[in-house]
Amino acid sequence: MQKLDLKITELDNPEYSRIVDRAEKRVEEAILYALVRDQARNDEIEILSFPVAVMMVAAANDPFLKRRYALAEAKRAYSILRQESRQKLAEVAQVFNWKIKPVKTDAVIPQTVPADFTLNFVDYLKNTSNFHESKWKLVNRTILHGEVNVTKDEAARLLAEEVRAHMENKLDLKIGFTLPQTVTERAERLKLLFLSRKGQARQEEMPKETTVDAFPPCIRQLYSAAQTGRHISHIGRFALTSFLINSGMTVENVIECFRTASDFSERMTRYQVEHIAGGRGSRTKYIPPRCDTLRTHGVCPGMDEICHRVRHPLAYYRGKLRLIKTQTPAAAART
After folding, report:
1. Ordered strands of the 143-144 beta sheet
2. Could you give the CA distance from residue 293 to residue 224 in angstroms, rounded to a whole number?
3. For strand 143-144 and strand 100-102, is the pairing parallel, antiparallel, or unpaired?
C-alpha cells in the first residue's frame, strides 16, 4: 500500500471508484449476511478496499455495527485460513506473536486427538475466552509443558478470533481528519441501511405471539446479550433458548438470536435449539430452570416486584402478559 502511495484525499477520484465500491460492498454484506463474501479476486482492489471499509464503519460510529463488521471479516478470514498450508498458518500466527510450533509427522506426543500444532496456553486461553463448546475447555485438551495441542482447523478458528479482536480495536479509531465526500456519503448510507436492517431483524426474531416487554429481568438481559454478540454462559444459553421456545418463538428465530456470537456455528446451534425444542433426541421439550437455580448460577441480574411473587421465568412471563393486556402501557411499564 505504501508503494502505491494512495492518499485518502484521492478516493473522490473516479479512478478509484472500484476500490470504494468494493469497500462499501464489504460492509453491506456484513450488515445483510453477517459475513464478507469472496468474489473474483483482484488483489489490489481487495487490499485497498479493506482500510476504506474500516474508515466507513468507524465513521458510522455505531458499536453494534463495529462488532458485526469485525465478526464478518473474522468469518471470512477463517474460511480462507482453513484452506492454507500448515506453514502459512504458522506464519500468520507469528504476525500476532503467537508461540506456535508445527508437530512433526514422526513426533510421539501425548494426545487424545490428532494434532498439527502445539500452542502456548496463554495464546490459547486468550482466544478461547468467548468459546462455549466443551472441546475448547482447557481441562479437555492435551497440554504438555505449557503447550496445547490443536489441529490445523482449530488453529484457523483461533486465528479468526484473533482477527475479530484486532478488527474491533481498529474500528475504535477516532477519525481525526476530514474524510472524502464519497466515503462520508457511503458511510451514512451504510449506517441507514444498518439501522433499518436492525429494526427489521428485531421484528423477524420476535414473532407477534412473543412479547419482549413481558420478559423477566434475567431473560431480558440474556436476550440483549445474544442480540449484541456478548458472552453468555452455558446455563444462560439454555435458559434463554428454552424460554424463547416456550414463549412461542420458532426454532429459526431462536437460531437467528445467536448469529452474532463470535463462536456461532449454524450446525451446532441448530442441533442444540432443536434438541431443546423437542425436535431431536428424546423428543422432550425442555423448560427453563427455576428462578432459584438461575440465582445460584449468577444469571439473575436483580429482582423486580413480580419476581418476588413467582418461582419460574415462565410464570413471570404469563403474569406480565396479563398485566400488559389489562393495564395502560405506562402502568405496565412501571410494573
Report:
1. 100-102, 117-120, 147-150, 143-144
2. 21
3. unpaired
The H or E element spanning position 143 is strand 143-144
Phi, psi at 50, each rounded to 5°: -60, -55
**Does the pLDDT at position 40 exceed 80?**
no
Structure confidence at residue 197 as a pLDDT band (50, 70, 90): confident
Q: What is the pLDDT of residue 273?
A: 92
Output the CA torsion 12→13→18→24 (10° steps). 0
Q: What angle do CA 20, 24, 28 make, to 5 degrees?
A: 170
pLDDT digits 0-9 by tens, 109-133: 555 557 899 999 999 999 987 776 6
CA distance 149 to 214: 46
Which residue, chain included where needed, has cell 477516532?
174
**Which residues, 6+ apart, have CB-to-CB distance to 6 below 8 Å?**
16, 48
**Cα–Cα distance for residue pair 78/97, rounded to 1 Å:** 18
Average model confidence (pLDDT) for the chain? 84
Residue 199 in 3-state DSSP?
A: helix
Cell of 188: 451514512
Count the alpha carbons within 13 Å of 65 in the hemisphere toward its beta carbon.
Answer: 28
Largest CA distance in the chain: 73
